[in-house]
Fold:
Amino acid sequence: MYRTLDAAKIVETVVQLQARIRERFPEAGLNGVAAEVHSVASESAERARRLGRPNLVLRSLVVLFALLLITLVVSTILGMNLKARVSSVVEFVQMMESGINDVLFVGAAIFFLFTYESRLRRDKALEAVHELRVLAHIVDMHQLTKDPDRLGEGPRTPASPEMNLSRFELARYLDYCSELLSILSKIAALYVQGLRDPVVLEAVDGVEDLTNGLSRKIWQKIMILDTIASE
Structure:
């Protein structure tokens, strides 16, 4: 049970985090972001399960079509009257070249068909991972102006963003943003748990690097708040 990610547990964690954000900051836009992460987590759990299962219908169609191609080529070769058609070495070489080209074409077609399912899975997984990457940037936008130095009594300008949070509330807000980023990276990991595709794995690693980098910026702000509190 500790060797695989449990999608249901991830969704449960998002629900709890969403409730905590709603109770602490009922009017904050971060509530809407948490609700969207909850929705994406629920959808991703089902998507990841679906992508991890073989598409039996598609595989059956691919096998049937591949057998049809092979049968067509074999019947064409067997139906040739080589003695009637080949009257010289040059014609024999031309016929062999044409046959080799046909075999290569059929081989390429069969390879394309048998890799179609994996490419289809890859495209769907990459689309989902891209969605998570965008959500991570949205979370970052919500903490962008939440700087500890705005808690001071320095002069404000008309364009200065509002800061109506206490030091404790700001720390909690930043911590919630960091937790949302961590959850997004775990949702992304669901797509490589049952789908061993190097391209998807690289994309998921990219999301993890992104969320880790954004979280580091947030924790720098939290450390500054801790320093202010200890002074």
The mean pLDDT is 82. The helical segments are 7-24, 30-52, 56-78, 82-85, 89-114, 116-143, 167-193, 198-230. Residues 7-53+122-148+163-230 form one domain. The CA atoms of residues 66 and 110 lie 6 Å apart.
